[in-house]
Amino acid sequence: MSSVVETRAESRTITIALLGNPNTGKSTLFNALADVRQHVGNYPGVTVEKKIGHVLLDGQRFALVDLPGTYSLAPRSPDEMVTVDVLLGRQTDVTAPDVILCVVDASKLERNLYLVSQAIELGVPTVVVLNKMDVAAEHGIELDIALLQKRLGVPVIPLQADRRIGLESLKQELPQVVGQTSTPSELPFPDAFRQEVLRLQNDLQDASSQAGSGATLPRYLVERLLLDQGGYVEQADLPGVTSELLERVSEARARLADAGFPVPAVEAKTRYQWVARMLDGAVVNRSEDRITLTDRLDQWLMHRVWGTALFIAVMVVVFQSIFMWAIPLMDLIEEVIAWLSESISAVMAEGALRSLLADGVLAGVGSVLVFLPQILILFFFIALLEECGYMARAAYLMDRLMYRVGLSGKSFIPLLSSFACAVPGIMATRVIEDRRDRLVTILVAPLMTCSARLPVYTLLIAAFIPDQRWLGGWLGLQGITMLAMYLLGMATAVLAAWLFKRTLLRGQTPSFIMELPHYRLPSLQTVVRRMLENGWAFVSGAGTLILVVAILVWAAAYFPHPPEIGSQVRAGYTEQLAALEQRERGLQDRDDLSEDQRQAALDQLLEERGELRAEISSAVAAAYMEQSFLARAGHFIEPVVRPLGWDWRIGCAVIASFPAREVVVGTLGVIYHLGEGEDETSESLRETLRSATWPGTGRKVFNVPVALSLMVFFALCAQCAPTLVIIRRETNSWAWPIFTFVYMTLLAYIGALITYQTGMLLVGS
Amino acid sequence: MKAFLPLFRLAAGQIGEIESISGDPSQVHRLHELGLYQGIKVTMIRSGSPCVIRLAGHKLCFRQNDGLDIQVRPLAGI
To answer: DSSP for A375-404?
Structure first.
């Protein structure tokens, strides 16, 4: 036997699939085993992430496939089908596994062996790993591993993955198992049932040989077809599964029911009976009802009042940390990008290439990197809360609230995270098992007021909302306007979620079933790794696309860039420049001034010249902008945005903000002749906006209704390329980001229209 | 005293034996996979909806809904 293994060793990589319930420490084991880890995106067509690791054991290459945590191998969705397909070698982009490594929580053996009973039916050599042996011992559980191994007919290896105890014996065992068959002392299902499966399999074989297709179905899938009435396997379009075959399946079910095996109830009963026989005498549970530390903690942490209060405190700490740590980091990233951009402008000659690098590429890179601090910090906390077991309690506490919206408690953290940034919020929806709930959460998350909207609100509120205060300054109109924007986002999200759950994503009764894991001390290594993985997933999965969008918008704002425009604008300033020079010369010739006086006069001239130069360059920038494709687009959409009270320049700035909302502030600066580098706190930008007029008239562009209409638009619109790209990544389809963009833009338009029109009625034109 | 009552009617601390689980097949199936099936003993830890129960060494939290009917035989109360 061992010689066979050795000859194989030189020829190919052995594939090991890791299978296990959630919270069994499967990913910890994966990370402890793998020397090299890679995430290669999703499996095609589904939202399941593909995680593959590599390790070299005794000169033999092993590939480890980490499958998503699952309680059973009875697929109910395309996502769950992927696990079964990988295990059966039907997933074409993953090599068929040579070994299944089934990770089992030793403290919850009974339930975990349910999955093992399915795994050993797959006909692939299996190794059972008993993880969390320490927790089992703590709970007074004693195990006869040799007996269990004999009964299961597969190697059983005790382990503590988090402390790497038992890892060596697992590494020694793995190469031995390849090519061996697993033969449990008894199979879960009785003969009568297995006969029916065999009969169906023969029917399938006959049908396929008649049709000449040669397609066959693994025994396990035939069994699932029999067990999962109305399940996913029936709809999965498997070869040979015709309506005729499904007819035979129902006949087989009827025969089984007569024989005392009613489908589907028979599965749970049969498997748990099998588990009980496997464990009988092999497990001694000395204290079934011992009050554990987890129970004592839960008395407080899940308490309606104390638990909720603590949860709010935890959330305050999380968000404080984001503002304390992420905002300075984001500012730093922006400063570095601005410095790089200036350096490029200083060393390169003016032209398309310089502009591309400074305003296109660097701005694009900046708009990707600027998200990283928030993603990393949020995922640090999310990983920490999940690893220690608190996340499930948070979902329990928030379920009552979220249920009213038609969602479950699991949607709370993703939605709350979206107040910082929708990108990590959408990434955090992976914990939501229910596909519909997850999609609804993803669709409404961008409506939460994220930090990128703040610059827009700050600018417009400071410029146009009167600073009226009441109650001794505690209550201000500006503050109320800001709050109203937050509430508008939230209320719209609640309505949209409610609507989606009743129309587009209507499903059966919303279910919320969740395991409450034992509390445990989180491993810092795992938390940091998960944080970095999420950061990398964003940069690698979304970075390129965001960059492309940023460059496209840059190109629209830059081209066609006819050079004569610049010279024309500059020509208009020649006289002013000449006048300055003349004054300078005049200063040189005067003898009646002391050296100090002359110096002061020169300094003033220098300052004036600097100001004039800045004015010229912003006039040039504005002139180019007015000639650009972006401006043409602005003019083109002007009839559409006129009812919102906007001129073409606002339309332009809104289009330019597609890569990221906050870009609108800078674009307004350029387009209203202020030059680049204006930010929301700039007094001159506020002044400029206040004094801007419609062309050819003295009528002001901005008034309170216009400012409010622009704010409402930004509260509801989907002007954020990273969000749309991450929705594509998470849903693995372009349909959802397109839908999100369309529905949010429509909402934003209608909201802005209502705001402007009613505003104008109140204010009067 | 009635022989069976819905699981959700158990008071906190009360123990019951699962008599039957019926309703929406996918929810019933999920509960089976999570270790809740006929004959097993459960302790109600937090009643209401969602409720928290303990069974065979672990805890489950789930929401009461129209698609789910779980009947238990109450065993002991505290």
So the answer is: HHHHHHHHHHHHHTTHHHHHHHHHHHHHHT
